[in-house]
Design goal:
CATH class: Alpha Beta
Number of strands: 9
Helix content: 25-40%
CATH architecture: 3-Layer(aba) Sandwich
Oligomer: single chain
Structural class: alpha/beta
Strand content: 15-25%
Number of domains: 1
Radius of gyration: 17 Å
CATH superfamily: Vaccinia Virus protein VP39
Order of helices and strands: EEHEHEHEEHEHEEHH
Length: 232
Amino acid sequence: MVKQLDLLVWTGESTIHIPCALSKVEIDCLKHCRELKPGAEGVAGDIVEFGCFMGGSTVLLNEQLQDGESHYTYDLFKWQDWMKGPYGGTKYQPGDNFCDEFHRNTDWQCNRLYATTGRIQNSTSSQGQVKLIFVDAFKEVSTAIHGIRNWFSHLEPGGVVIDQDFYWEPMQYTYCHLFYYRLREYLKPIVRADSMLTMRVIKEIPHEFAKEITTTDTTMQELSACYEYWTK
């Protein structure tokens, strides 16, 4: 499955096309699914987005901001060779920075948006409350470990975690399945849309527990239980 879809957005003056790494089902889910909206649960806090590409998911998620909340995005904003296939890009060459296009796609609407260019491993948490984490960048185990260790303990009960690539290929990013399995006492799967999985935060994740997330202590017994948990 190749996700190649433009998000069409009316700015009040014209329609813009934002190249998007989401399928139509995933876009519709982010737009309309009440279960994905932590505000409906009375939860307050910031939005954190790991991997925002050209800003399609950013525009959709930013609509959930309430007064006093902020939206933080993290991306390399660096064009890679594989992107020219799914996203039809001939404008950019590998290594080109597309952060300016991200801002053109988002600045007209998004409030209190703070975009950081660079590797997630270099990011630090705001220490504030977080009501939503959107994941589209845990393609390396070190990235996933850093994101979980530094941000997940700030999630408010009733908030949500959305992993956009969870079902991209069966168990492709096995370490994410393992990490979420270990967090099952705190995160409850509630909605699946194509490859996107949404989990509700059912209780606060202890900072000490999040800090222990690693792959070095994995056993075959745990991997078997993890596989059964996600395929049942």
